[in-house]
Amino acid sequence: MAAAQVSPPPPPPPPPPLYLGFDFSTQQLKVLVIDGNLNVLHQDNVQFDSELSDFRTQGGVHIHSDRLTVTSPVLMWVKALDLLLDKMKRAGFDFSRVRALSGSGQQHGSVYWKRGASETLNQLSPDQDLFQQLQVCVFSVSDSPVWMDSSSSQQCLDLQAAVGGALRLAEITGSRAYERFTGNQICKLRQTRPDAYQDTERISLVSSFAASLFLGDYAAIDYSDGSGMNLLDIRTRSWSEVCLKATAPHLDQLLGAPLPSTSVLGPVSSYFVHRYGFSETCRVVAFTGDNPASLAGMRLQQGDIAVSLGTSDTVFLWIQQPRPALEGHVFCNPVDWQAYMALLCFKNGSLTRERIRNECAGGSWEVFSAALRNTPLGNNGNIGFYFDTMEITPPAVGVYRFDGDDNEVSSLSSQVEVRALVEGQFLSRRLHAESLGYSIIPGTRVLATGGASCNTEILQVLSDVFNAPVYTIDLSNSACLGAAYRALHGGREASRCSSHPRLQTWRVFSVRVCVCFYTTDT
Ligand SMILES: Nc1ncnc2c1ncn2[C@@H]1O[C@H](COP(=O)(O)OP(=O)(O)O)[C@@H](O)[C@H]1O
Ligand SMILES: O=C(CO)[C@@H](O)[C@H](O)COP(=O)(O)O
């Protein structure tokens, strides 16, 4: 008699796919993992100063002796990626489940690939880490200029003169000439280091540099981060001939063609497949700037104002039509290619708060927060404006303190100084936003993110000064989250859908008392 046929049990379903978002920001490299239901499953980071101390950065950068030039070692970013992926591997992370990855980078910074570098990128051996293979002969400039740099004033003046003035430049590129914007940095490099420039075969932004590592090939610059270069025509979304010509000959060949921020660039390079076990089908979605990625991560809606408290403080919002001005920036929108985002950037943000914390609160955020709790809203009229380094908005430097009678004073008591700083910072964010026409009206939501947004006392001051409720989500690195969302949606419009579950997790800080606003010219 024939034995009864027992069919084997069905194979277990494959584990659900995952999506990675990276953020190459000023002080650290971060990663965040989500599943297809947008649940955050894992987060990790590498701090540049402490975990890569051989590079001797402070706050992720080197400030040069002229106090204007600010750079970061490009190999530090490469080594940070080795370290982060090794940490994840050691923690047992299953890279084979990653269906797509994307990322963001601090805006405006530039990376210069040496002639022949693309071959090295194409032929990476999985037996060695990226740092070992990229440390020689791959970068023509080892110290990348970053967003904190303000050493290209002459190049800014020249560019504005060449295109017909500051407002004309703003009409084309979304911004008047700014020192940190990449085109002016490229122009300065060409003039001051012609040999290094001649030896360059490709120029990337920090975001497209990071995407290139994953792709094993040069990644395109996306429209949104490309808007921070003073080179892209934000309406035609192509390089502006007049700006290119004024910056460097044949620059378009060094930059490659820009692409929509939602582009899928291709599969991850075989290096990552063999070294970490990524699937060959894992896709790399275009990387973008950290502020554009935050806009995606915070799911900004029309009328919302986002305040990012990272290394820089930024204020940004989603806009439908560009209205470039002499202050602030208009970038192409990273989520909806027909829309735009407006942004103001303040250089003296977290690092200035850290200085005052060190001087007035013994280096403790807890003591700093207690000072905010123990001082009254409005600070009895005491106020301060702290521009430790040349500010971007407004272009000013120095520390200015005023007492309740509006007299300039040289010092304030510790607790009063803490409140004077934070109120002064947020007052400036509000005044500059309003002077550009961003209205804070009943119903406006202020959405806070970035490292300092974990501090509830700071958020309370933000709410009081903006006279509006401030919302946060339960994690402060919205750039990473936005990058993971962008990976998940793989360039699809769906990333704009408003019925997002994370909206349920916003926490609100409400206005305590209607603030009596200061009158000041700053
Ligand atoms: N508890 C806190 N209170 C205020 N600020 C904080 C707190 N924790 C971290 N920060 C600030 O967050 C900053 C880093 O923010 P983050 O968004 O991670 O920066 P970036 O993305 O630019 O590297 C630090 O410089 C620090 O001053
Ligand atoms: O220059 C700008 C925006 O224009 C900065 O916001 C940089 O993008 C750096 O971002 P963080 O590291 O401070 O988040």
UniProtKB/TrEMBL annotation:
Gene3D superfamilies: 3.30.420.40. Residues 146-297 form the Carbohydrate kinase FGGY N-terminal domain. It catalyses: D-xylulose + ATP = D-xylulose 5-phosphate + ADP + H(+). The keyword ATP-binding applies. GO terms for cellular component: cytosol. Residues 306-489 form the Carbohydrate kinase FGGY C-terminal domain. GO terms for molecular function: ATP binding; D-xylulokinase activity. The keyword Kinase applies. Pfam families: FGGY_C, FGGY_N. Phosphorylates D-xylulose to produce D-xylulose 5-phosphate, a molecule that may play an important role in the regulation of glucose metabolism and lipogenesis. PANTHER family: SUGAR KINASE, XYLULOSE KINASE. Belongs to the FGGY kinase family. This is Xylulose kinase. It comes from Anabas testudineus.
